[in-house]
Amino acid sequence: MQGRITEHNFPNRAAIFQPEFEKLLAGAALDTQHVTIEFNREVLRLNDENDCVQVTAHGANGETLTYRAQYVVGADGAHSVCRKHLGLPLNEVDKFDVRHVVIDVVDDIDPSPMALTKMGWRRNFFSMPAPNGRRFEFSLRPDETPEQLLDDDTLRRLFKPWRNYDDLKVIRKIVHTFRSRIVPQLSVGRIFLAGDAAHLMPIFGSQGMNSGARDANNLGWKLAMVIRHGASPALLDTYHEERWEAVLKTIRMATINGKLQKVQSIPMSLLRDLFFGLLRLIPAATRYIREMRYIPKPFLRSSLVRPAHEKGASKQLIGRILPNPGVTVSGQGHLLDEVAGNSFALIGIDTSEGDVGAASALARRFFGNCIIVTQAASSADTDVHVNGQYVRAQVADNRFDGIFETYRGQWLLVRPDRVVAAAGPLSHLQADASAILETMFSEQHSSSHPAPPASDPSPSPVPA
Ligand SMILES: Cc1cc2nc3c(=O)[nH]c(=O)nc-3n(C[C@H](O)[C@H](O)[C@H](O)COP(=O)(O)OP(=O)(O)OC[C@H]3O[C@@H](n4cnc5c(N)ncnc54)[C@H](O)[C@@H]3O)c2cc1C
To answer: Residue 2: what pLDDT?
Structure first.
């Protein structure tokens, strides 16, 4: 897949082999030394108690295991036990119901990294690269059963224009159903839902796993703030506030995309093909589709994001994910994300040294880091300077050019999920930051679950 390298410095599309990816994630989680992973446990039920949730599970040998947790995140997929425990329905966003038979093959004759979609009016065909081979998909017609499509004779017939089915080394074949659904709320009390447990969407647009990752990215730092830094449990209510609408938008995009592909009449399919045929004559339109620019970009409006004081500035950055340029710190190349760490960051855009004392004090109130980024071309001081209070990072590519233009001399308050929560000259930002701290630490909206005492008031170390 030829992904476009985005302002976040990663390709916007990449083919990922899920078992490998899960191994990497599990390894990274274990490396933090704060995580225990237990496999072969089947969660049977949850019980809400006053100050915790009790989780009962079956172990590998059928033994009963009990866990007590301050908070539970049910990321247990489409048939979630956690969702059933909460009694939350998976409401239909649309009556979309498309099924595909998916056939994974190793040692295929086509090693190309390109994906092919062949849309017809009776059936669609997909071929895409997969580790050591390819994945093929055929859509099912409404009157067909999974058994019919998994049958070797049917597959032999369907594969005829593409491959000799009997020559294929098939390692897996399965029928998947794609639906558009979402729960009405993402949490109840101490139990949260994330990923497919909370929402299902058609694969068209490839956003299912991505949406689950965004859920985790939004909820993770908030749980850490509550458990580790004594923030108010009301902070956790912003998980629903910030994610629900965003996921709904993504489901709608994937559904429209799926409906365009699902067309089942000759005139509609001709119209569709004519439309896309004409679009191909416009290079910008081709780019828009090939680079998947139709996927909604995260944009937050919530009590944890403060509108800009200056007209026009909000459009550019506030509520959006901060671009992630390469930077140089102490002569070493990094990504800005790595320098900012997993905490809040107060980022000065070519700001004066005079701000540093107040800015780092403010960053400490967020248990965060203070960073000044400079633009190589405009900064006389190209030396890297770390004094324990802040990091000076020199931007090494053009991903911050627009930001330097608009925000030079201003500060950005960036959340651990890299959403820009506020921006402005330090005097303005201090007021916005205080309002956000008030939302995070005020007990007045607090629901039934009391905050634990702050256990570690020291800021995370500033990486250098
Ligand atoms: C054919 C296909 C192609 C796709 N392509 C893409 C794509 O290109 N891009 C994309 O972003 N998404 C894609 N998706 C969607 C993506 O696979 C899912 O959205 C994602 O896997 C959901 O992750 P999850 O962790 O929420 O749930 P799951 O992957 O379903 O994981 C849930 C886990 O919970 C465990 N579990 C369930 N119940 C219990 C219990 N009672 N006790 C203990 N454990 C339990 C399960 O064993 C499982 O390990 C695709 C999906 C399909 C079917």
So the answer is: 67
